[in-house]
Amino acid sequence: MEKVVSCETIIVQLPTRREHKWTGLTEPIGRYVLVKLTDEVGRTGWGEAPALKDWGGEFGRYFGESPSIVRTVIDTYLAPVAAGIELGNAVQLHARMDAVIKGYPYAKAAVEFAYYDLTGKALGVPVHVLLGGRSRDRVPVTHSIGLLGVDEAAEEAARVVGEGVRTIKIKVGVDPKRDVEVVRAVREAVGDGVDLCVDANEGYASPGEAIQTVRKMQAFELKYVEQPVAGIERIAEVARAIDAPVMADESAWNAHDALQIIERRAAQIVSIYTTKPGGLYKAMEVAAVCRAAGVVCNVNGSVETAVGNRANVQLAAAAPAVTLSCVVPVSTPAEQLGDRIAGIYYRDDLIETPMNFVDGAIEVPSTPGMGIEVDEDKVARYRVDG
Ligand SMILES: [Mg+2]
User: What is the CA(271)–ligand 1 centre distance, in A?
Assistant: First the structure.
């Protein structure tokens, strides 16, 4: 097969629809690193590292990666080992990247997505075929309500349910009283037919505080409680004390983490990213470990631009363990946006055609590679690195 000949990094900043915050986040979303791989016949493949310096593993287990760190790692270490590699060999790409520098899963994921995109185009098949096939044709979307005021949260929730969304995730972990209040208000606004989840992003001070708070929230029925506190042992403590299932996110980066969570019976649900384990190939390994233990999964992320979100959709399409609604954007360029807000976090996006959103779900594209073409004019417009 053809070989990769070049690897370029580009930093973009997309305009946000509203401020989107969660516990611990100190930067705006949407300032991310894109990777453009070119092969010897001139085909291009695109990837993205939605890297945040505030997003790491618990107790210093994994570090944050800022856009400038990602760029340095890719340009200095990953681009030279990606160049010259034949398409169709993700295993070798990972071996080379892991041999040249330890860690930096977001940087490695961005290169790997571009490589899968290129390989799919070269073979004329969608990326999910390269991952083993298609477990589903549509990916149900969970709309994420950031740390908003109580009234604003309830209003946005009602609006997105009107647009077809069936699962809402509410960011909590700030102040127990406010958190219970916002869950109550959202439940009142959306009625009984909608699944509600909460994500504390490790925000509660102790398992005890989390347990007390979640017990009050459970009056409004929760589908799951995501990462109430930091630490596998500490989420296990919460999981044993509450009725709602606990989802591990910050505690679950790669297949080894998933194994530890399963061994310690710390959570019944694992949140898989394309990025935390370092790419789609390794995300499928996380999914396989979870499936073997009967742990169910969703695909979740860092509010990617369309470039990275295309990989989310391919993973959610392929992995049998991903049975839950996924916290992925409905990537839509400004020209097609209208006044819709369900799954919309940006005022514009980097693809030529929108992701197809039908009955609260994104239709999995069946075109080659990642399935939706990147709009290079938009990439140029939102480029912030000169
Ligand atoms: Mg989370």
Answer: 8
